[in-house]
Amino acid sequence: MQRLVLKRKEFMLLQAFIYEHIGISLGDHKIYLVQARLAKRVKALGLESFGAYYDFLVADQSGVEFEYLSSLISTNVTSFFREAKQWEYLKSYLPTLLEKKEGKLRIWSAACSSGEEPYSIAMFLKEYLPRDKTYDIKILATDVSSKVLKMAMRGVYTSKACANLDTHYLKSYFSEHPHESQRLYHVSPSLKQMIVFREFNLVTGDYRLLESVRFDIIFCRNVMIYFDKPTQNRLVERFYTLLGKEGYLFIGSSEALTDMKKGFYSKSASIYQKV
Ligand SMILES: C[S@@+](CC[C@H](N)C(=O)[O-])C[C@H]1O[C@@H](n2cnc3c(N)ncnc32)[C@H](O)[C@@H]1O
User: What is the pLDDT of residues 25-50, one digit of tens each?
Assistant: First the structure.
């Protein structure tokens, strides 16, 4: 089959579309990455060029092609208990948080990928909340990609995905099932019921849907890095509004709120508190 080449003009159209609709800012040098990630899809649709693909994408009113595009362009890499230092911090802060909140907690995993992040939050709370009290806990987990959200809702992980998970967690919160030549780990219903999964685009989403909630903690980790500064700024302002008094924002360790942390106090690397 003939190799598809992404022409500069075609790349610029896709680059602008991706920026406007997903928020991801692709530098000009990403032309080869876009070509590599989209070529298979363009061929599967029977299209002869990336230009024809762009026309198809723009004309598609069903949202299906946008879904394919976001899944192919975004990086979905994630893992259980990623950013170990943040969990240590949370452990030390939890008693204060619970005292202030009188047992009611609202947490948002704002780009949850295939679910390892919200399930880590749920396991963490199960482990460290005092057992002699009842708590009203809701974890909202959102992502732009319905493909990864489906995986998150299914909550089935390979032994490779669970490789870094302590055996205590595996035994307490997963059931093990043989599948073909491997073992799969199914998340327990007790974790699933703590989480509400929803599709939400951080850049173009309707934030009025979230206005009634005041979050105690927002996890927005390893996604802002793909956005440009103005988009990051707008997002951080949104988070500020949605957080309750003294609420926390956790970002990825390779990200920073420099120049835009108005109203946020830096507590530790990549952990910010609303003043
Ligand atoms: C690298 S993963 C990070 C997952 C998790 N937060 C972590 O730190 O392990 C980035 C996720 O951001 C999502 N994403 C990219 N652009 C987005 C947008 N505009 N709105 C919401 N999610 C987005 C991707 O679909 C992907 O699942």
Answer: 999 999 999 999 999 999 999 999 99
pLDDT tens for 130-176 read: 888 888 999 999 999 989 999 999 999 999 999 999 999 999 999 99
Residue 109 Cα to ligand 1 midpoint, Å, equals 10
For position 51, which CATH number holds?
Answer: 1.10.155.10
58, 146: one domain: no
Question: Is 73 buried (19+), middle (13-18) or exposed (0-12) by CB count in 10 A?
Answer: buried
Question: Ligand 1: residues within 6 Å at CB?
Answer: 22-24, 74-78, 82, 111, 113, 117, 143-145, 148, 201-203, 221-223, 252
Whether residue 1 is predicted with pLDDT greater than 60 in this model: the reply is no
Residue 143 among the catalytic residues: yes
Same domain, 67 and 92: no
Question: Distance between CA 153 and CA 210 in Å, rounded?
Answer: 20
Task: Give all strands of the β-sheet with 182-187 in edge-to-edge order.
Answer: 156-158, 182-187, 174-179
Distances (CA, A) of 253 to 27, 108, 221, 259: 22, 18, 8, 17
Nearest-CA residue for ligand 1 atom 9 is 78
Same domain for 93 and 227, yes or no, is yes
Catalytic residue among 37, 41, 234, 238: 37
pLDDT band at residue 102 under the 50/70/90 scheme: confident
Q: Tell me, yes or no, whether 251 and 137 share the same domain.
A: yes
- 29 and 133 assigned to the same domain: no
Ligand 1 atom nearest the C-alpha of 113 is 27
Where in the sequence is the domain holding 246, given as residue range(s)? 84-156+188-274
Q: Examine the domain organization and report whether 102 and 42 are in the same domain.
A: no
